[in-house]
Amino acid sequence: MTLKPPAFDEMFDSDSDIRPHYADFARWLSAQPSSVMTAKRVEADLSFRRVGITFSVAGDEAGTERLIPFDLIPRIIPADDWERLDAGLRQRVRALNMFLRDIYHDHEIVRAGKIPAEQVFMNAQYRPEMQDVDVPEDIYCHIAGIDVVRAGAGEFYVLEDNLRVPSGVSYMLENRKVSMRLMPEAFGSNKIAPVAHYPDLLLENLRDVSPSGDEPTVVVLTPGMYNSAYFEHAFLAQQMGVELVEGRDLFVDGDTVYMRTTQGPKRVDVIYRRVDDDYLDPLSFRADSALGVPGLLSVYRAGRITLANAIGTGIADDKSTYLYVPDMIRFYLGEEPLLSNVPTWRCGLQQELSYVLENMAELVVKEVHGAGGYGMLVGPGASRAEIDAFRERVRANPANYIAQPTLALSTVPTYVESGIAPRHVDLRPYVVCGSRQITTVPGGLCRVALREGSLVVNSSQGGGTKDTWVLER
């Protein structure tokens, strides 16, 4: 094991002793010859290639499909830590749903002065078409992916909220399958909470919010096979036992959405959509969209179809709205946030902009609508020229950026070319909201920065994934 970096090490304590929750796995790992681990690593790669788990990188003109590296060594989270995280995630998503309901109806949080009106109504992700639209059970965000990190002495912090079309759950499920197959002895020596029930949980919750009665028809709407996450769309449809459809497979007749089938039209009640707002309905949003369903919004406004997630949820995962989530929790729930935000500067405010411009070499600067590691600068890892160029981008449109301190993300043991070494990680747990309860799946998508010293975990930026083992009591 290489020397620990100056960050919270999830496997070793400050005295370099193995933490209790890693003890069983560490004993198994120490008994594995390097040749065995190398063989397992090769087998894992072959497994992912056989299944077809690849992604394409935005801007890659060759359209090359890449394999996301899978690391054999799991991230292990003890039961106590998960219980605290679980409670904080459910609290946060509950407040975010209440915020979405409020801003598209009564605007109480704006009138109370807890969030500026311009932050809501001038936001590019605010959809005026959704004003006064009632959605089933007042659930706007049915599936959330909340990115969390550990820093400092191991405290959890929310890095960002993903409420539009959160991706990555297929990797959580496939990572578990591979680790169970390649490391059955290690898996069997720990009592690990399951994740395989996620598709059933998702389908049950989608059916629960159907506007119709018994046996609702649920479909997964994909932009098509050229989308970077198409594998996941097809995977989830297959796992739930529902149809995977494109916009051309659906049509509106009167106040109902139908699916074309070989037996004739079939009514659709719930659409788990993996298509962005702008492309959902060419009659209401982008007229040039060939991905959506003409007239879909009118059926939605009439309460005859459920969309998961709802149109307009993007305003709640905007990186500038993120700053106000603790205030939302206090306002709607009358509770203190169980999970803290990362300290954040808004470049749209002159005083905070000045600080960011002067200290950019020490900060992480992000576009408020950016994703996948694009549109961001990690100051400590950037060159002088890159910092200067990014500074000019921020000056040209300051309201489009926020900045955060460069956190020393926690590390976990990772199998790299040189052997086993600590690498920085984050975690995207998935939160499912139904008519009866909000549920988290124990674990999530753990992303790991495979390059030594790197803090950027995104797969498009060279990161990989790990299985996440949440220990049961």
Task: From the structure above, extract its key features.
Rossmann fold, alpha+beta, Dna Ligase, domain 1, 23 strands, 473 residues, disordered N terminus, 13 helices, 5-stranded mixed sheet, 29% helix
Describe this structure in words.
With 473 residues, the chain is an alpha+beta fold. Among the domains are: 212-304, Rossmann fold (3-Layer(aba) Sandwich), CATH 3.40.50.11290; 343-406, Dna Ligase, domain 1 (2-Layer Sandwich). Helix content is 29%, strand content 23%. It has helices at 23-30, 34-51, 79-103, 108-111, 117-121, 169-182, 184-188, 198-208, 230-240, 296-301, 325-333, 350-358, 384-396, and strands at 54-56, 65-67, 70-77, 143-151, 155-162, 218-221, 243-245, 250-253, 256-259, 266-268, 270-273, 306-308, 340-341, 345-346, 363-367, 376-378, 401-405, 411-416, 419-428, 430-433, 438-440, 445-448, 464-470. It has a five-stranded mixed beta sheet. It has a five-stranded mixed beta sheet with strand order 13-5-4-20-21. Strands 7-6-11-12 form a four-stranded parallel beta sheet. A hairpin with a 3-residue loop joins β4 and β5 (155-162).
